[in-house]
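Reopening this one. Same input as before:
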Amino acid sequence: MKEFATILLGAMLLSACATPATREEGDSIPYSNTILIDSSDSQEDIIAKAAHVVPSPNQLAALRNEFIAFVHFGPNTFTGREWGSGMESPSVFALEELDTDQWCRAMKAAGMKMVLLTVKHHDGFVLWQSRYTDHGIMSTGFRDGKGDILADLSASCRKYGLKLGIYLSPADLFQIESPDGLYGNLSGYSLRTIPREVPGRPFKDTRKFEFYVDDYNEYFLNQLFELLTEYGPVHEVWFDGAHPKRKGGQKYNYKAWKELIHTLAPEAVIFGREDVRWCGNEAGATRPTEWNVIPYPDDPDTTTVFPDRTAPDLGSREKLYAGRYLHYQQAETNTSIREGWFWRDDTRQGVRSADDVFDIYERSVGGNSTFLLNIPPNTSGRFSDRDVAVLEEVGRRIEATYGPGTDLLAKAKGPKAVLDDDPDTFYTMEGPGSEFVVTMKKPVTINRIMIQEAVAERGERVEAHAVDAWLDGQWQEIASATNIGYKRILRFGDVTTDRLRFRLLGSRHSPAISSFSAHYYRAGAPQLTISQAADGTVTIAPRRQEFNWKSHGENASANLSAGCRIYYTVDGSEPTEASAEYTAPLQLQPCEVKAIAVLHGDAGAVASERTGYAKAGWSLLGCSSQMDSYPASAAFDADPDTFWCTEKGAMPQYIALDLGAVVELRGFAYMPQRVSPEGMMAAGRIKVSSDGRSWKEAAAFEFGNLVNDPSKRYCYIDAPVTARYVRIEATATEGGSRRVAAAELDIF
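Same output, byte for byte:
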């Protein structure tokens, strides 16, 4: 590659910015972003080197952003698709209004520091006035073809003090599918000038570069030049690893891309390459131990292949021993506020609760990663009201818990460097077994501890730690975890104390703690859910949010309400703090269970559930039909996420159950499946039998509005009956469906 003088100058500037951390006295290992493992290194040598791997200045700045926004916007917003085909007409993007000020106000209210816009998603449609394609905003009716989403957003970012980043998809279905497309067109490599001149569209930035590339890489570099020179400072360039389709063996000249980015956007980190990595999922799930010092088989500074890292363990000692290089590469925890990356509608598309988003914030930012939350604008060019309400509430919680003036150790005594709110000072610990104590002037109530290592100066070194509180005349452990890194947030039930002790349980070399603070999060009493297992066991717990997209497996309500107490009744009476306290799953006969959660002296809403007979001894007597993937047994497996569905047929359709013993019946409960409106039972009857052959109708039922409200419905028998066999017949379904489906049937 031939480089112009400007590239050399950019490299010199980068080198000048990358000032290494100061070396400890007597320390022979230099601090660096990447360190080579020599073949002669012992395991002890490798761990010592890992303790000297530090983030670059750009990486450190990105870590300090902590909470950032993603904005997916494009033709998919108007088609309801997640991935477009690339061949949609630009007219599909029928935008009439745009309010990027509203986006930035909402993001600022949430406490976000930067926004990344999908300026080109996999479909190849561009949201800026590019010189090098007409497949984009310039070919729509928005502002008579002169609109520029990125220009509007850049101006709003300056107005509201937000940093700007760009998502530019390497994949490009328009360039793949078009007859004259450049992606994989088998063009030859040659020396090309970037940017390519376009008559009538000169650049104010007159720098020129030459790279040895093919047609598509030239196209990509030209677009990068536009994006990095015409919209103000760019702080992150996001390269997606997803590819809906490839063609012609197309290769990416990442070395050229990187040269251009480093020169034109010297403050930017690059996602998907050596600077920032994907966390490994799109659900908002986080690792209990997220190391940012990880092993590489090749030099990250020169390699062009950066595979996704999805394993649960990336940086333990055992993983480091197998590497060839040790490199600092931080994680971004990315997910969407909605069920999907793009907006689809404001009625059926689920939106995360504030509890869920705040929980992800504490787990990701407080787990040594950056939280990247997607908020997709709607077809009116605005964030929808529900999304804004969640952002505002999350921002209120972050500010009230971790904002200025919230550190409850502000006037405490202890190591000055950990209490002075200065990230550049730190307290060096000697190794496992060492500790420090912080003493407050008077007792304070806390439920959060936030700890930071001086990663820029001393890297990541803590491997295990614990925090104790002085309670009842002795030290009692209140929280523990593994690594710390940039930041660790420990969460626990309310503790009132005037002394805290930090204990180092495991480390690599001598850790440097730069911050130790205590906080209080005032959670509301959670809503509860009452569930029953197949063996009849009844569990009462904080309710999980229903969010039907890439589950992270966490119960946000439970995570945020540590220390809450649950009280219940089984006779239908209203529970109070004088009722029985729930401490373990219950074995109950059919009854009406009511429960409340109490936290900070406040009681939550009453949860109520009519429990049924245990299903462990039930069996299928018969049914009108069942599909292979949706067997009748799913209707009584105590799992509401599975369901029975019949083949298409005439009504009535039925399911008959053997309860395994003669019981007294007072009714049944029907939980519809929620995957689609298909097969929801609108009307029918319940029959009983003592021999499984002769049936007697016990009650008829009608269930209305199931499509809009697919909640559990109940059918009660006027006079209790005894029977061993039950047959439920559907005589009508919502919308006249010719199938019948049930997620769960309960008999009580």
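So the earlier flakiness isn't reproducible anymore. For the record, Residues 1-20 have pLDDT under 50 and may be disordered.
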